[in-house]
């Protein structure tokens, strides 16, 4: 494809995306295909001869779109949002066009330095501790996901616990322990497995009535395990748990971790970005105790996947765990110690120029635009929760400080409430106008309404509420018959 052909087809593809965003509300939110439908619509063999982009665009419509769940649909309230935006897509397009591999500073200095700078900007916007700045002892890096960031944090913590050795030569992998709660994201357990820790390495600390980790339980477990000869390595505290957005009390957990010499990792994958809004920062009080911190711009901050913002307070622990310098990567800038080589801050060697999309997003919206986005969603969630709370057909189940509301329908008579709740969810999702997901609280299913898709407005939330009420009434009648 020549640059001129690229220009022409690039315009067509950008038009296609803009048209998709314009008509997105006309699609059923959840894909309605059955397993195997998409593959059945594809030819068995790849094309022998090249085809025009128009043919590919035609198949995007015919084959791909029916198999897409429309995460950018204004009626998408499932899981956590996976934001994208025009500036994010354009930044990614430039990154793709430059085709830079930014593994080392020398392989493209701007890829490293723009990332350092943007991460420092974000650290400031989120009011993270000064130690996280590249100008201090720490620094930030863009990772592919918070799951990856959780693994990297654990590797850095193991490096520190082994006093500079490796897991094998420093801390005994069968004695190293990681502390989570039952609400912690499953990626932390996966990280422990990948890091080669023992099968019982993950200790589950009790939670309180708000599903937040109990500091006293953590302290008692740390003391007991240490007395038994184990090495507590990392505590993972969550700000905004995946299930219900519970908040572990950082200000109380921090001093306990510090006293025990344990690495405190804060997983704020979804909720951390709310720190751009001053009045929401109190929810992360105590973040200054963190040794590392992760939050995803690709969830709720108008940036397309993948854009995990990850910081450490002591970059030496991270690079000590992950740096390897083979001969073929040696260069003067690295040898002089004058630069950051981000390949030493992540699992993979190669890396995309992801800072570009963050830079585009920040420059297009400005800090104030990001605040407006988060504030708007939190306000909608609070209004929605008030509607639910005031209605005797539903209960709000958990606290809802961010933009997720968990609710449980009430059912009269001897109806199996769990079955009825899941039936309500399926009816709503089958309807195509909205999409929600569920979790369990206290062993019972509850509906999660995650507000945060950029296109969602009050009108869409009102429509969701109307659909919830209508379908609840219809089902309640149906069960009564
Ligand atoms: N941590 C928490 C608290 C999450 O909620 C999630 C995903 O929802 C993750 C980690 C994993 O995030 P990612 O999809 O970026 O790996």
From TrEMBL:
Keyword Lyase (UniProt): yes
Keyword Lyase attributed: yes
Origin superkingdom: Bacteria
Modified sites of kind N6-(pyridoxal phosphate)lysine: 299
Keywords: Decarboxylase, Lyase, Pyridoxal phosphate
Pfam family, one: Pyridoxal_deC
EC number of this enzyme: 4.1.1.28
An MF annotation (GO) of this entry: aromatic-L-amino-acid decarboxylase activity
Enzyme class: lyase
InterPro entries with a match to the protein in the record: Aromatic_deC, PyrdxlP-dep_de-COase, PyrdxlP-dep_Trfase, PyrdxlP-dep_Trfase_major, PyrdxlP-dep_Trfase_small
GO biological process terms on file: amino acid metabolic process; carboxylic acid metabolic process
SUPFAM superfamilies: PLP-dependent transferases (SSF53383)
PANTHER family according to UniProt: GROUP II PYRIDOXAL-5-PHOSPHATE DECARBOXYLASE, MIP05841P
Membership in a protein family: Belongs to the group II decarboxylase family.
UniProt protein name: Aromatic-L-amino-acid decarboxylase
Species this protein is from: Petropleomorpha daqingensis
Lineage: Bacteria, Bacillati, Actinomycetota, Actinomycetes, Geodermatophilales
